[in-house]
Amino acid sequence: MKKALLEVKNLRTFFKTRNGTVKAVNDVSYSIYPGRTLGIVGESGSGKSVTAMSVLRLLDANGYIAGGTVTFDGQDLAKVTTQQMYHIRGNRISVIFQEPMTSLNPVFSIKRQLSEPFIIHQNMSKKEAEKKCVEMLRAVQIPNPEAVARQYPHQLSGGMRQRVMIAMALACKPDILIADEPTTALDVTIQAQILRLMNDLQKENGTAIMFITHDLGVINEMADDVVVMYCGQVVEQAPAKLIFTDCKESHPYTEGLMYSIPRLNDDRSKLDPIPGVVPHPLDLPKGCKFAPRCKYCTQKCIDNEPPLAQVAENQLIRCFYPSKEERRSSEHGKITVNH
Fold first, then answer.
1. 118 and 73 belong to one structural domain
2. What DSSP string runs through 67-85?
3. CA 263 to CA 146: how far, in whole Å?
4. Is residue 139 a part of any domain in this protein?
């Protein structure tokens, strides 16, 4: 495999609050490779977006990187200066945010906003940038791009605004594109078009993509590798083709997410959701963070926190009982703790 474009190792991102320190990301590691898509999945509050914003150094004022490294092109982004980050953001690493209406400035035209990356990072003149702006709108399959370039965000539909955001993110042909739930606010047909567009542009430019979502269906369609997060930790990491098959090992949380998905050939009378809710970040369990919601939980899980261990080639799981056969056995049932 090619050398990793981005390597995150033991990243810890904390936030100071009146009630204490929130460990939003706690010891997270993963790598992103050229031309491949890394899917990061998990419930709201699992630390997916904070991980991405840590890479870009776009944290809130009370947030800080408490430890770990973010290595990109031989540099640790956790330690470079703000001025150096200006040259990386939007140029080498770009981002598509979740809600395009709040990402685009309502008082500036599309042409004005889309021209900025070319003027700032590519040193183009205003005239050259405006010409390039139309080319990018055409590349993301926006009809009549000359007219759209003169319009304002409120004049465009949600799908059109998201295409503009993709055009802006890919303007400088970045090495890495971070897509933070880019299809959440879109209907299913537009979502499919946006995902197809991102796949096509990735093949054309060789861009690596970090795709953040809570939708496993989207991950199945987009990702080459998958990181499953829960309570600021990676609980499973594996190739997508392994996670979306009936593999022998998995984390109970990943298993629960799978059982929560409706399928066309499903003969179940109802879905099997994960019980309970994600614990409050200031009141996390002592042992395994998923223990209070896990049907396979034992006293060992309550008392001790499992390490992220390799269970198969390219598969890491944070669980004392990664084997599906073992934890579903009658013997395991005898040591299970009832909540």
1. no
2. EEEEEETTEETTTS-HHHH
3. 42
4. yes
Nearest to 261 by CA among 220, 206, 203, 305: 220
CA angle, corner 298, sides to 289 and 318, nearest 5?
40
Q: Work out the number of other CB atoms within 10 angstroms of the CB of residue 5.
A: 20
The answer on pLDDT for 259 being more than 90 is no
CA–CA gap between residue 152 and residue 149 (Å, rounded): 8
Q: What is the per-residue pLDDT for 1?
A: 59
Phi and psi torsions of 68, nearest 5°? 95, 175
Tell me how far apart the alpha carbons of residues 33 and 83 are, in angstroms, rounded to a whole number: 26
Instruction: Tell me if the pTM is above 0.85.
Output: yes
pLDDT at 100: 65
One DSSP character per residue, 200-256 reads: HHHHHH--EEEEEES-HHHHHHH-SEEEEEETTEEEEEEEHHHHTS--SB--HHHHH
- Asked whether residue 87 falls in the same domain as residue 184, the answer is yes
pLDDT digits (tens, 9 = 90+) for 106-158: 999 999 999 988 998 888 999 999 999 999 898 888 889 999 999 999 999 88
Residue 120 lies in domain: 104-167
CA-nearest of 78, 63, 70, 69 to 24 is 63
pLDDT digits (tens, 9 = 90+) for 68-109: 999 998 899 999 999 999 889 888 999 988 776 678 889 999
182 close to 219: Cβ distance less than 8 angstroms: no
